[in-house]
Design a protein that fits this description.
Keywords: Disulfide bond, EGF-like domain, Repeat, Signal. GO terms for molecular function: scavenger receptor activity. Pfam families: EGF_laminin. This is EGF-like domain-containing protein. A two-stranded antiparallel ribbon has the order 1-2. Strands 3-4 form a two-stranded antiparallel sheet. Among the domains are: 63 residues, no CATH class; 50 residues, Beta Complex (Tie2 ligand-binding domain fold), CATH 2.170.300.10; 42 residues; 60 residues, no CATH class. About 8% of the residues have low confidence. The two termini are 46 Å apart. The protein is 0% helix and 26% strand. It has 341 residues and is mostly beta strands. The protein has no helices and 42 strands.
């Protein structure tokens, strides 16, 4: 009598068991999960899954944990992606990245769900634990209306002040002369550090930069943070960033992502339209719904032949092709009807 379990086969010579994929042991009672890191017949093959992935006991295929992808789950999610098999997109602005597992944005120097807001006044660093500048901090509190750099915490002094805390007045011991655009100081002997393409004016005395609309920073090298615009990026945009839309850093006008419209880009395209500025017309047929972003059609489910009526299910990019005989639902699946139904 053959005592092999789990569909194992008995040897006609000595009665030993030949176990199927996923099992091992004298009677094929042990699952490969119990034999750590093994799979296949008699659990003789090594699993190659990495980064905590689940190994299928039968064929050794890997089911990746969130944050990884690849045949053996060996690849971390690329920038802008997260989740199972890195299949989900994330939107983190101002150079910040998202958590490869949860998709939450890790903000440095900014706050908000998508890192769209600068740090609150007097704070800097990571969103999860803002470092508030106090008298006991490594960098003293900024004075004389100086701004705190949102990432480094360094004080950015106004004209006429200098020092670590901007608490020293700049002594003007020379006559003001008209310097060329890229020079400042006594006899215009110092070279401005301003980016000439992004700067309106280099101060002829202290060399500070007055940035054009769309730029900020000590040298006017930094584009405006995503939700700000105008000269020195002082004005706040009103665009809905959750839709993937953007704000023009010069004018503040909202640039809507595909599938959205309106002054704030918070309105979905009307029924029957899709794409950029909702200018493309959907071509879905037979009552199918149209994706407002990409125009893809989701076919409606029908009912296959009854005695009183016959309603067709549809398939194809435009939902204009009937399902094959014996198939139905939104994906033309095989029907399970019996007795001629």
């Amino acid at each position: 009598m053959c005592l092999c379990q789990n569909n194992g086969s008995c040897s006609s010579v000595d009665g030993s068991c030949k176990c199927p994929s996923g099992f091992s042991g004298p009677l094929c009672l042990e699952e490969c999960e119990e034999v750590r890191g093994k799979h296949g017949p008699d659990c003789i093959h090594d699993c190659k899954c990495q980064n905590g992935a689940y190994c299928n006991k039968k064929d050794g295929s890997c089911m990746c944990t969130a944050g990884f992808s690849g045949r053996f789950c060996e690849n971390k999610c690329k920038k802008g992606y997260y989740g199972i098999d890195c299949a989900s997109n994330c939107f983190c602005y101002n150079g910040n990245e998202c958590d490869p597992v949860t998709g939450n944005c890790h903000c440095v120097g900014f706050t908000g769900k998508h890192c769209e807001e600068p740090c609150p006044e007097g704070t800097f660093g990571k969103k999860v634990s803002f470092t508030r500048i106090t008298k006991a901090a490594t960098i003293s509190i900024c004075v004389n209306e100086a701004r705190c750099h949102p990432i480094s915490g360094k004080c950015i002094c106004l004209e006429g002040f200098h020092g670590e805390r901007c608490d020293h007045k700049t002594q003007l011991l020379f006559e003001i002369t008209v310097c060329p655009f890229d020079r400042f100081g006594p006899n215009c002997e110092n070279e401005c550090a301003c980016n000439p393409n992004n700067t309106k004016l280099c101060h002829p005395i202290i060399g500070s930069c007055n940035c054009r609309a769309g730029y900020t920073g000590a040298g006017c090298n930094s584009p405006c943070p995503t939700s700000y615009y105008g000269e020195n990026c002082k004005k706040k945009c009103e665009c809905n960033l959750n839709t993937g839309s953007q704000c023009n850093p010069v004018t503040g006008k909202c640039i809507c992502a595909a599938g959205y419209q309106g002054i704030r880009c918070d309105e979905k395209c009307p029924e029957g339209l899709f794409g950029m500025d909702c200018k493309s017309k959907c071509n879905c047929k037979n009552g199918a719904s149209c994706d407002h972003r990409f125009g893809t059609c989701k076919c409606t489910a029908g009912m296959l032949h009854t005695q009183s009526s016959s309603t067709t299910s549809w398939r194809g990019p435009q939902c204009n092709l009937p399902c094959w005989g014996g198939h139905g639902n939104t994906e033309c699946r095989v029907c399970s009807c019996k007795n001629g139904a």
